[in-house]
Amino acid sequence: DWTMATYRDTKVAEIREQVGDKKVICGLSGGVDSSVAAILIHEAIGDQLTCVFVDHGLLRLDERAQVETMFRDHYNIPLVVVDAEERFMVGLDGVSDPEKKRKFIGGEFINVFEEEAAKIGGADFLAQGTLYPDVIESVSFTGGPSVTIKSHHNVGGLPERMNMKLVEPLRELFKDEVRDLGRELGLPDMFVGRHPFPGPGLAIRIPGEVNKERCDILRKADAIYLEEIRNAGLYDAIWQAFAVLLPVKTVGVMGDARTYDSVCGLRAVTSTDGMTADVYPFDASFLTQCATRIVNEVQGINRVVYDYTSKPPGTIEWE
Ligand code: XMP
After folding, report:
1. What distance in Å separates the CA atoms of residue 280 and residue 292, rounded to the nearest whole number?
2. Could you report the per-residue pLDDT of 183-202, keeping only the tens digit for each?
3. Of the residues 4, 69, 102, 139, which has the maximum number of CB atoms within 10 A of its CB?
């Protein structure tokens, strides 16, 4: 793709110009955007770049291992993995307001990045995989007055005190363009096609209070749902699919015993840029199969519902 080949060359030159001989910390989320940003920046400045992957305890099942493998085995890019589950869980304790969750998580990411920067003798720049829709949606909603719908952690939520400057080489791009650029940079198709995953992770898929126990329950349900989607050959037809764990308990029956457990919501949408989205129309039998497996296999969930809301008026994530 000549467009992306040109974009690549232009950005590499711009990054070199912006960064000079200074050091850059890149926050990796494991998603396509931050990976593409990291590879592009690495191409521009080599070992002036350090990538930091924060395991905030809000990741999906096996995600950390996948990202570690990918970066260590396929790219020769130094990767620091920070085990930060405890401090994120402590900070989220008692927080149920969606914007407060997002602000805390965004701020704590910066704290971790600054600590890691200090360890390598300081860094002048923080790199992120911010895309054009992230910029727009954090500022205003399609043309209306300036109303913040959500503070995307990689745009808003950056504390004023942060003393690193931002490097955001994907700020003009939409998701499909980032995927093209990823292919241009040699990222494997399987990785380029990954569904988006938000920086605040499972915290915004657990309305109400977040804790490790609830994250563990959600991780299991989410993994089953995605396994079913992959097995049915539907993964690539869907923009994003995930489970949410609701702060509501309902009554059920297992064998001859009464249960009183949480409700799990399933979401799947099609979209081209995340700014609008349509509900993915699964067959009823597919959803029944997912519900049966989740209730049978995940302790703590006894009821599964499917989210039929388009965006707008819904958003893709529940918070
Ligand atoms: P919403 O929920 O606003 O999501 O319809 C649109 C797209 O953005 C993703 N998303 C985020 N990505 N940091 C991110 O990197 C965030 O804070 C964030 N919040 C939402 C969401 O998963 C969807 O793809």
Report:
1. 19
2. 999 988 888 999 999 999 99
3. 102
CA atoms of 45 and 219, how far apart (whole Å)? 36
CA distance 109 to 129: 14
Task: Report the chain's terminal Cα–Cα distance, integer Å.
Answer: 36
224 and 184 in one domain? no
* 152: three-class secondary structure by DSSP: coil
pLDDT band of 107, cuts 50, 70, 90: very high
Quick: pLDDT tens for 32-68.
Answer: 999 999 999 999 999 999 999 999 999 999 999 998 9
Atom number, ligand 1, closest to the C-alpha of residue 318: 2
Would you tell me the crossing angle of helices 32-45 and 175-184 to the nearest 10 degrees?
50
Question: Is 205 close to ligand 1, i.e. is its CB under 6 Å away?
Answer: no
Do 167 and 249 belong to one domain?
no
CA-based nearest residue to 163, from 130, 115, 129, 119: 115
Helix, strand or coil, per DSSP, at residue 163? coil
Structurally, how many domains does the chain consist of? Answer: 2
Summarize the confidence of residues 272-284 as an average pLDDT: 97
Q: Is the pLDDT of residue 145 over 60?
A: no
What domain range is 162 assigned to?
2-192
Q: Cα separation of 319 and 304, whole Å?
A: 19
**pLDDT of 2 over the 90 cut:** no
ipTM greater than 0.95: yes
CA–CA separation, 101 vs 98, rounded Å?
5
CA 271 to ligand 1: nearest atom:
24
Same-domain pairing of 53 and 114: yes
Nearest residue (CA) to ligand 1, atom 7: 274
Position 172 pLDDT exceeds 90: yes
